[in-house]
Amino acid sequence: MPAMGAVGWARSFPVGGGVRAGRAWARDHLAALGWDRTAPDVADAVVLAVSELLTNAHVHARSDAELVLVWDGRCLLLSVHDHSPLLPRPRPSGPEETGGRGLALVQAVADHWHTYPAPDGKTVTACFHPPAPVCGPLEP
């Protein structure tokens, strides 16, 4: 049986408590790919980015968020869509501030990230490459 081209999952997370659930959901799917064993540092980075992007959607966009994970055998794409048309911008934050570091954290842990405007809001997508080939559902 030939390997699939990609595998992915999607779920919506509500404003009132979706961040913790989003982290757990992402961890479960990363474990299904085996990343908890083969690429634990990258799996932790993905979960951190999930947390930051869902928080941004809930706090700044005041919106439910749709979270999508797609593994294509080369890059794990993490996308979070919210319903605000305002594009996120990294902002400076001082050592005493309790917020303002989310996008800087995503930039630090992801291989690259982008924001895409959409008619019903925007999507922030980050790509994560494992440090070495990892097994997962794409392997025969």
Strand order of the largest sheet: 1-2-3-5-4
Strand content: 25-35%
Termini separation (Å)?
7 Å
Any idea what the shape is? Answer: globular
The major beta sheet can be summarized as: 5 strands, antiparallel
Roughly how much helix do the residues carry, as a percent range? 25-40%
Question: Over the alpha carbons, how many angstroms does the gyration radius reach?
Answer: 15 Å
Oligomer: single chain
Number of strands: 5
The CATH class label is Alpha Beta
Q: What's the overall average pLDDT, rounded?
A: 87
What is the string of helix and strand elements? EHHHEEHEE
Which architecture does the CATH hierarchy give at level 2? 2-Layer Sandwich
Return residue spans where pLDDT drops below 50 for at least 5 consecutive residues.
Answer: none
Which structural class do you get from the secondary structure elements?
alpha+beta
Please identify which CATH superfamily we are dealing with: Histidine kinase-like ATPase, C-terminal domain
Count of discrete domains: 1
Keywords: ATP-binding, Kinase, Nucleotide-binding, Serine/threonine-protein kinase, Transferase
InterPro entries: Anti-sigma-factor_SerPK (IPR050267), HATPase_C_sf (IPR036890), HATPase_dom (IPR003594)
Protein name: ATP-binding protein
Pfam family, one: HATPase_c_2
